[in-house]
Write a structure and sequence with these properties.
The protein is of the alpha/beta class. The chain has ten helices and 16 strands.
Length: about 400
C-alpha cells in the first residue's frame, strides 16, 4: 500500500501544483470563500467524489467509503480561508486579489486534502471503513468556522471516531514532519480595554485624570495575573500589542484603548483569569479616579492531541517517510480552531515542513513573502491518506 500511494501521489503531483497555484492566486477572506468553495467542488466533481456544500455557507463535507464502511469513520479536515495581507512575492501565481493572500498555507492544506481524497478514492477497494472530509471556512476569524460547522452537525451522520488535520511549518525543511502528543496549542482570547479619564493640558496634571498614566499602571499590574496567579504547570501568556492614546506632547486625551490577548491550556484557569483581569482593571482605574470598559472575547479552546491517535499517525508518517523525518514538537502558545474538534473527537493535528533554505523559501506564516516548497503537496497528500487508511479508534484495538 505504501508503494502504491507513493506511485499514485507522484503521478498526481503536477495536478496538485496546478490546484495549489489556482487557490493561491485567488484567495478569499474568512467566511467569504465562495469562489474557493466553487473551485473545490469542481475538482471533487471531476474526480467523481460525492459531497454536500453550503456548510456555514462555503464549507464542503463528504464521505468516501471503502470496504466494510460501517467498521470505522475517520475525519480529515482542511481550512480554506486567507488573510488580509498584500502579497510581495514575485511569482507567476501571485495573489490576484489586492490585500488578500494565502499567507498561512491554507491553500496548501486544501490541496493536500484534495490530494489525499483522490488517493483514497482511487484505492477504496483496498482499505476499510469510511473517510469523512471537511473543507472548512473561517479558521482565521472568531468565532472560527470549526465551531460553526460543529453547531450545524458536521460531527454527526456519520460521526468520526477520530479526526486529523495538518498545518504548514516553514521553519521546518520540506520532507520533515512534526508532532506532539497531548496538549499542543493554546486557547486564545482577545482583550479590549477602554480606560476613561479626563483630558487636559499636559502642564496642568492637577486638573485632569490621566488615562495614559492609568494605562501604564494597568499593563504592569495585569502581568501578575500570570506571574502570581497561574499554576507553574499551566503555560499562560498575557500580552498587549496595541495601545491607542490620541493625545499630543502637551495634550492628555480623555481615554486610552488597549488591545491584547490571553492564552492558556486549562479551561477552569481560563475563566478565573478573565475574572481577575476584569477585577484588576476596574479597581486600578477607580483608584486613580477614572473608569474602564473591559471586553474579553472568548476565542478558540486549547488543542489537545489524543495520545493513541497521535501515536498511530506518527507510525504512519514514519512508515512513509522514515523515522528520521519525524521530529518532536514543543507546546505552542499559538491557537487554531481545529481545537474545537479536538475537544469532542480524538484528534491529531500535526505540522508539515514546507521550507527550503537552499531555495530561499523561509518566510514565516502571516508574512507578505510566505511561500512553500511545492514538493510538500505530495508529502501532505500521502500523509493524510495513509493516516486515514490505517488509524483505528480505541474500540478496534
Amino acid at each position: 500500500m505504501k508503494q502504491l500511494i507513493a506511485t499514485k501521489a507522484l503521478a498526481l503531483e503536477p495536478e496538485l501544483i496546478a490546484i495549489r497555484r489556482h487557490l493561491h492566486q485567488h484567495p478569499e477572506l474568512s467566511f467569504q470563500e465562495y469562489n474557493t468553495s466553487a473551485y473545490i467542488q469542481s475538482v471533487l466533481s471531476q474526480w467523481g467524489i460525492k459531497f454536500s456544500s453550503g456548510w456555514v455557507k462555503t464549507g464542503i463535507v463528504g464521505v468516501i467509503e471503502g470496504k466494510n464502511p460501517d467498521s470505522r469513520c475517520i475525519g480529515l479536515r482542511a481550512d480554506i480561508d486567507a488573510l488580509p495581507i498584500q502579497e510581495e512575492n514575485q511569482v507567476s501565481y501571485q495573489s490576484c486579489n489586492p490585500g488578500v493572500m494565502h499567507a498561512c498555507g491554507h491553500d496548501v492544506h486544501t490541496t493536500c486534502l484534495l490530494g489525499a481524497l483522490k488517493l483514497l478514492h482511487d484505492t477504496r477497494d483496498q482499505w476499510e471503513g469510511q473517510i469523512k472530509f471537511l473543507f472548512q471556512p473561517g479558521e482565521e476569524k472568531l468565532p472560527g468556522g470549526a465551531s460553526l460547522m460543529i453547531a450545524e452537525g458536521v460531527l454527526k451522520n456519520p460521526a468520526p471516531q477520530a479526526i486529523i488535520g495538518l498545518h504548514v511549518l516553514p521553519q521546518m525543511e520540506c520532507g520533515f514532519f512534526g508532532l506532539k502528543s497531548g496538549m499542543f496549542m493554546a486557547s486564545a482570547d482577545e482583550i479590549y480595554i477602554t480606560v476613561k479619564g479626563k483630558g487636559g493640558h499636559a502642564a496642568l496634571p492637577q486638573s485632569f485624570i490621566d488615562p495614559i498614566l492609568i494605562s501604564a499602571h494597568l499593563i504592569t499590574a495585569l502581568q501578575q495575573v500570570v506571574s502570581r496567579n497561574a499554576s507553574p504547570i499551566i503555560p499562560s501568556v498575557l500580552s498587549f500589542g496595541k495601545i491607542i492614546g490620541n493625545g499630543a506632547t502637551n495634550v492628555i486625551p480623555d481615554e486610552v484603548k488597549l488591545e491584547g490577548t490571553f492564552r492558556t491550556f486549562n479551561e477552569d484557569w481560563r475563566s478565573q483569569a478573565h475574572e481577575r483581569i476584569q477585577s484588576i482593571c476596574h479597581s486600578i482605574c477607580e483608584g486613580f479616579g477614572g473608569s474602564c470598559e473591559v471586553n474579553i472575547l472568548k476565542g478558540y479552546p486549547f488543542l489537545v492531541n489524543d495520545h493513541s491517535i497521535s501515536d498511530q499517525v506518527q507510525k504512519s508518517l514514519s512508515d512513509l517517510f522514515g523515522q528520521d523525518k519525524i521530529l518532536p514538537l514543543e507546546t505552542r502558545m499559538t491557537a487554531e480552531d481545529f481545537a474545537y474538534y479536538s475537544q469532542i473527537v480524538p484528534a491529531c493535528f500535526f505540522r508539515m515542513g514546507t521550507g527550503n533554505s537552499a531555495k530561499g523559501i523561509s518566510s514565516g506564516i502571516h508574512t507578505s513573502t510566505f511561500d512553500v516548497d511545492e514538493k510538500c503537496l505530495i508529502h501532505g497528500s500521502m500523509a493524510m491518506a495513509m493516516a486515514a487508511m490505517t488509524i483505528k479508534p480505541y474500540y478496534l484495538h
